[in-house]
Amino acid sequence: MSLARMFCRLNGYLQPKSKARAPLVSGFIRTQNEVRHWQYTAPQTTSCHWQLQEECLELSYGGLVMHFAYVWLRDHCHSASCFNSKTNQRNLDTANVELNIRPANTRVDDENIFLTWPDGHVTRYNLSWLAQNSYEGQKQNAMQPRIIWNSDIYTSAKVPSANWDKFMSCDDELKKFLGSFLLYGIAFVEGVPPTVEATETLTQRVSLIRETMYGKMWNFTSDFSRGDTAYTKLALDRHTDTSYFQEPCGIQVFHCLRHEGTGGRTLLVDGFYSADKVLQKTPKNFELLARVPIKHEYIENVSDHRNHMIGIGPVLNVYPWNNEVYMIRYNNYDRAVINTIPHDIVKRWYVAHRELTTELRKPENELWVKLKPGKVLFIDNWRVMHGRESFTGLRQLCGCYLTRDDVLNTARSLGLQA
Predict the structure, then answer these.
(1) Burial class (CB in 10 A: 0-12, 13-18, 19+), 148
(2) What is the distance between the alpha carbons of residues 403 and 210, in angstroms, rounded to a whole number?
(3) Which residues contact 230 (CB under 8 A, 6 or more apart)?
(4) I want to staple 154 with a disulfide (CB 3.0 to 4.6 A). Which of 129, 149, 391, 399 is the partner?
(5) Rounded to an integer, what distance in angstroms lies between the CA atom of residue 312 and that of residue 70?
(6) C-alpha 56: how far from its chain's center?
């Protein structure tokens, strides 16, 4: 049984029978000399074969054999009476569609299929659109193309930083920045004035700021003003932030405004790269980390701050149809009591967690960066873990969290796949 099929079983449904394929974690195919994203592209000309089965239309096109339930085909009609092309919203009342509906007539030309329904309504579908939006097509596509990396891969890529002046005035510079961020999960902007105000202005070019109990923009030193190890001079192991939120913050921004001392380098680790290694070596451990929900918890009783946050979810969050990891919750500091796993699963979960931790802590997977005034770092908090060296002296950082939906919205508005 494939992992993708296993996840579907765990989520209460089964995939239709199909040829087995290698599971996807990273959304790309690795070859010796290149990285190519999984993406279905219909050929210029191709033959089309179709058959009306008892409950679905079977369509063979562009190398794919696809199956469409008849009720799905009626529900997704984009005719003027069923779909508002100005608002891109459905007009059709799905609740009024007969669940056992079946087309009365079907015909196909070089580019389209036409379905005539019992009431005489005609639905036209472009064949390439059906291939791209079929379940079988989605199994071959990555929701988010990315390049997973270790230190050597990222360093060799020589990803350029954005320039503050161009970033703030030129959409092409913003698009290049977001393109790099989507591929690698991290991106830098250089030449930013070392102030909280400039950092805030910079982030608002990308997205709305997500306000949390830490405030909108945070500006802190190692004064232990909050009940968190980040507000000390201690080293921090790799972790994702706000794992104790039901929806962890999507993007984190760091800007070191001042450091009068030694140490304090920032550690970055691509969690998707390590998850992919676990999947390749021990699929059962990968499956367990993606299936078992655990709790993360944050309890704060410092000064005037009283907070008790709990987030629940698996370490690895995976799209069940293509086995693509889209979020990691990994924070050993904030992991709560494990009381959501039966006793016969607990040790197996620890074994799986240990394997992922071992991968995350391999030196070759660590990218160390010295943050300095003017250099702003954006981190995909659902993917890339961060940490730091211990340090001496005064070190002042500012930053914020960004709303993930708005970052992706900005990227899509610039023509990027996100």
Answers:
(1) buried
(2) 5
(3) 220, 236
(4) 149
(5) 37
(6) 32
Residue position matching structure tokens 């790099």: 180
Question: DSSP string spanning 154-167?
Answer: HHHHTPPPEEHHHH
66: tokens are 């696809």
Cα-Cα-Cα-Cα dihedral sign, residues 391, 394, 395, 398: positive
User: 145-418: which CATH architecture?
Assistant: 4-Layer Sandwich (3.60)
CATH of domain 31-141: 3.30.2020.30
Residue 134: which of 76, 93, 85 has the closest Cα?
76
Residue with tokens 């690698």: 184
**Chain position carrying tokens 């919205």:** 409
For residue 345, how many other CB atoms are within 10 A of its CB?
15
d(CA 152, CA 365): 8
What residues does each domain of the chain span? Answer: 31-141, 145-418
Overall residue count recorded for the chain in this entry:
418
Other beta carbons within 10 Å of 375: 18
Q: What is d(CA 278, CA 272) in angstroms, rounded to the nearest whole number?
A: 10
- What whole-number distance in Å separates Cα of residue 59 and Cα of residue 145? 27
Going residue by residue through the chain, which has 418 residues, state the pLDDT in tens, using 9 for 90 and above.
Answer: 444 444 333 333 333 333 333 333 344 333 333 343 444 454 455 689 999 999 999 999 988 999 999 999 999 999 999 999 999 999 999 999 999 999 999 999 999 999 999 999 999 999 999 999 999 999 988 888 999 999 999 999 999 999 999 999 999 999 999 999 999 999 999 999 999 999 999 999 999 999 998 889 998 776 555 456 666 778 899 999 999 999 999 999 999 999 998 988 999 999 999 999 999 999 999 999 999 999 999 998 877 888 999 999 999 999 999 889 999 999 999 999 999 999 999 999 999 999 999 999 999 999 999 999 999 999 999 999 999 999 888 889 999 999 999 999 999 999 999 9
Distance CA 383, CA 154 (A): 15
Quick one: 35 exposed, middle or buried, by C-beta within 10 A (0-12, 13-18, 19+)? middle
